[in-house]
TrEMBL record:
SUPFAM superfamilies named in the record: SMI1/KNR4-like (SSF160631)
Domain of life: Bacteria
Record's protein name: SMI1-KNR4 cell-wall
Native source species: Nonomuraea solani
InterPro entries: Knr4/Smi1-like_sf (IPR037883)
């Protein structure tokens, strides 16, 4: 993490500001699950990121998570928890080259929110990145199309 911080400090066009521990705790409380240690360390050391690279939008994460919680109240059969196991395993990932060789499109698409994750960022329309919070792949980032969402904000 120290090497990453040094490299970012060298190329950054905006300041690197660590996220206060109290904000990380508040984020974990709002999400309803602890953050993976690697992501927690990143926030404590690097914060939300630095330009010219991507910068996390904490307000978006909080607002979309609240929107998702409201959605769960309105559609209880769609409810998942960030504490539930992340459903993708290393074995699943190792099978991706085979799917590709067979001409099967390996897009991660769910018809409901993914257990064991938190929303991370919006790429437009219904494409998002989410962070796996637990399981074999805790701390990994996944891009998916959210088939259950009509509109992202």
């Amino acid at each position: 993490m120290a090497e990453l911080g040094e490299e970012l400090a060298r190329i950054a066009t905006s300041p690197i500001t660590a996220l206060p521990f109290s904000e990380i705790e508040a984020l974990e409380k709002m999400i309803g699950a602890p953050l993976p240690e690697e992501f927690r360390s990143f926030l404590l050391d690097i914060g939300l990121g630095a330009r010219p690279g991507p910068v996390l939008d904490l307000a978006w994460i909080v607002n979309e998570t609240r929107r998702e919680h409201q959605y769960f109240l309105e559609e209880p059969d769609m409810t998942v928890s960030p504490q539930q196991p992340f459903p993708i395993t290393q074995t699943d990932v190792q099978g991706l080259p085979r799917l590709s060789a067979e001409g099967i499109e390996s897009i991660l698409w769910f018809d409901k929110p993914t257990p064991g994750t938190m929303l991370l960022c919006n790429h437009g329309c219904t494409w998002i990145s989410m962070l796996a919070l637990n399981g074999e792949l805790a701390g990994t980032v996944w891009m998916t199309e959210m088939g259950w969402v009509e509109e992202m904000h």
